[in-house]
Specification:
Elements lengths: L1 H19 L5 E4 L3 E4 L2 E11 L2 E10 L13 E6 L6 E3 L16 E4 L2 E8 L8 E7 L10 E4 L11 H4 L2 E11 L4 E2 L13 E13 H11 L3 E6 L9 H6 L2 E4 L7 E13 H6 L2 E6 L3 E4 L3
Parallel strand pairs: 1-18
Antiparallel strand pairs: 2-3, 3-4, 4-8, 5-6, 5-9, 7-8, 9-18, 10-17, 11-12, 11-13, 13-16, 14-15, 14-17
Length: 293
């Protein structure tokens, strides 16, 4: 009888802890700080303006002189029951937001991050449960699996036993740097794949929430999906700037299944970006700030 009660209490605590720390993210309420990526990051004043979600960020290194992610590598995203992930690099996230009286996130020194992060567009505010942060450069050792994603086929469904997730492409489009779209017939044209170019990948990520939860606990964090090669900054097209080359797999904790539809961009030398592109699934550490309810 006693053992049954203890087991029930343990199960209840485990379930509650998972809801408090979805997929082994470090978690706090909006308005509090977390130590992640070598930074103490405070996130506050989550608000909406038109179709943008705004949040103020203030961060400093966790240890003076200690290793920490580069400011330009810290990426923020919206947490909740969204139909499509919405992420942006913190620096530069407000460049397309006009008419707002705000101070965009900046790094006045290598040891300070301060200002507002802009995420959107998003019309349905009720979907948002919080804000997360991670770095595509921060990887948990021995958790990576990489796959070819060549134009025009893209990525075939991955083996669930590799990472606990099935990742595939549902659409692939390739372009030259000037915006000219390439069709499959371009493979026979020796002049088509010269110079720079980019490829847009529609990515589908599926799995069982319970398994992903257990795997995340063993790893110490969730997974991210990365597309390569890529370029810094705005890159070769507006689509690449908007979609980026990474997405954190962080579904809302109450969901029974992992089902994420994302768009990623590969860009650079056109052969590398379209014919020899890769999609990787990698474990990482992430932080999540949730809205108090």
């Amino acid at each position: 009888m006693l053992s049954t009660v203890i087991l029930a209490m343990t199960s209840a605590c485990s379930s509650g802890d998972d809801r408090a720390h979805p997929y082994s993210t470090q978690t706090a309420a909006i308005g509090e700080s977390l130590s992640v990526l070598g930074w103490n990051i405070g996130v506050s004043n989550l608000r909406w303006d038109s179709d943008s979600v705004l949040v103020d960020v203030d961060a400093a290194p966790s240890q003076a002189g200690g290793a920490h992610a580069k400011p330009e590598d810290i990426r923020f995203g919206l947490y909740g029951a969204l139909a499509h992930p919405i992420e942006a690099n913190g620096l530069g996230s407000c460049r397309d937001v006009t008419g707002l009286n705000l101070q965009p996130l900046s790094a006045p020194t290598p040891e300070r991050l301060t200002g507002t992060v802009c995420l959107g567009p998003l019309r349905d505010h009720s979907q948002v449960r919080g804000i997360y942060a991670y770095s595509p450069k921060e990887r948990i050792p021995e958790t990576a699996a990489a796959y070819p994603a060549a134009f025009p086929v893209g990525l075939m469904p991955t083996n669930q036993n590799d990472t606990g997730l099935v990742v595939k492409t549902s659409g692939v489009t390739a372009f030259r740097a000037d915006g000219t779209q390439l069709g499959p017939e371009a493979l026979g044209d020796p002049g088509a794949f010269t110079g720079n170019g980019y490829m847009l990948l529609a990515i589908e990520i599926d799995g069982l929430a319970a398994k992903y939860r257990d795997d995340s606990a063993r790893r110490g964090g969730p997974m991210m999906v990365l597309a390569a090669p890529t370029l810094p900054g705005s890159g070769l097209s507006y689509a690449c700037a908007a979609y980026g080359a990474s997405v954190l797999v962080l579904p809302e904790a109450s969901l029974d299944a992992v089902r994420v539809s994302a768009s990623l961009c590969t860009q650079g030398e056109i052969n590398a970006a379209t014919l020899y592109a890769t999609v990787s699934v990698v474990g990482t550490h992430a932080a999540l700030w949730t809205i108090r309810e």
